[in-house]
Amino acid sequence: MTASAPTLPGPMDPTTLPRTLAALRASGWRSRSVKAELRDNMTRALRAGAELFPGMVGYENTVLPEVVNAVLAGSDMLFLGEKGQGKSKLMRLLPRFLDEYVPYLDIAGCPVHEDPEKPITRAGRELLAKTPADGVPIAWWHRSERYAERLAPGTKFADIIGELDPARLASGTSMGSEDALHLGLIPRTHRGIFAMNELPDLDDLVQVGLFNILEERDVQIRGYPIKFDLDIVILFSANPSTYNRSGKVIPQLKDRIGATIQTHYPLDRDTGIEVMEREALAPDTSHSDARLSLGGEFPVLVPRFMKEVVEQMSICARKSKYVDQQSGVSARFSIANYRTMIANARRRAISLGESPSVPRISDLAHIQASGSGKLELDLMGTHQMSERQVLEAILAESVRVVFEEYVKEHGLNEIAEIFSKGVKIEVGDMLPSSQYAERVKRVPPIWDKAFEVNASQDIQVRASCVEFVLAGLWAMDKVSRSSRFGRVEYET
Questions:
Q1: Phi-psi domain of 217 (left: phi exceeds 0; alpha: psi -120 through 50; beta: other)
Q2: d(C-alpha 341, C-alpha 358), whole Å
Q3: Roughly how many angstroms between the first and final C-alpha of the chain, as a whole number?
Q4: Quick one: which of 89, 5, 27, 17 has its CA closest to 53?
Q5: CA of 34: how far to CAs of 76, 94, 103, 192, in Å?
Q6: How far apart are alpha carbons 415 and 159 in whole angstroms?
Q7: Dihedrals φ, ψ of 190, to 5°?
Q8: Which domains does the chain have, with CATH numbers?
Q9: Per residue in 274-285, pLDDT tens?
Q10: Which of 15, 189, 374, 441 has the fewest CB atoms within 10 Å, measured from its CB?
């Protein structure tokens, strides 16, 4: 769905914005809290029928309505889900519902962006008390700078709340004075959004500080009566296995979080493929970031069944007895494997001059590089396997599942009988596509089965289909195979 009108305030020309408090008041500007700002702009976007969270696939009817409700309700939020479920991405999309620019008091050395009508520091209050409105300087803060994020492990109280500054104390500043403080990240995000990733890994003392902010909306440091009435939205992310573990998160903090948003992996394979392609591929051939393009000088054509095999690997891994299911299997597992498969197909195109290059099962021999480290093995289980063996088992299961959807079982035993007579077929990621027809001459039914997968006469597609049939026979235990450096030999 696309917006029929701008979803957010802007774009604005900052050079035309008021530069004094008098001019700001004359412009009709009114002070609003961050939560009111988010709610008003979310309302505008909903009324316009806009796409609220670009790039979030598969959450339209599950997660996103809960996020919208939390914004409209004015709640702080916890995104609860396993790794690779887009929790951080969702948090980073919320600042788009802030105003493009907000005004603040332009005070040299002030650690916070003061609301021109509701300053929280002594410096801000004194400026308004002692200076005529036409002499109070105003600057403007862009929404892209009003979001701050922190990863919980290693985070100290001083990092996000603040600490007394020893140098200022040594110079004679009183401990009870604002001037004695070095403010942390949360106070400096006053009038913005702060996100804390992996909440259960946060030190208990810091959790108490966050509880105080959620409850009272103020900051107290070392028990001294210095308070700042903060205007801020707090977001958290956590994994269910650690968040629900007793003692990891203090109950009082859990109780103060207004909304818990439960995320999930794609509910079906087609959605998973859409996520995988969106994250792995550039939207056009001119894209210059780290994402791949299928076009360009060495184009790559990816058959549907190869996309399904790659995504099915993640689905199988999420059910595998060899994988620790509490840690989850990130969508990055599919994305990295998909990129590796495309990269190896392109390497073949560059080396052999094939165009377009079509990925094959043998290209997936290289997922040992992209898949390693992305699965946490179940080391407490009775089946002890190396990561390489687990990846191989997951690949076999994925090929079997997809193969059974494409190819009829009738005729497979006939092929297996031919192999039982001593026939061997070697294929590989660097074998020219033109040689596949010759390689399978001794087993003609393989060529026929390949047409069940895809009827294209293109030799690169035919080569990919032949390898898929061979891999399917192996996955169904009708033939065996040995693999080394992208070269694969099939035999009885």
A1: left
A2: 10
A3: 53
A4: 89
A5: 11, 12, 13, 6
A6: 66
A7: -45, 130
A8: 14-262 (3.40.50.300), 269-491 (no CATH)
A9: 999 999 987 654
A10: 15
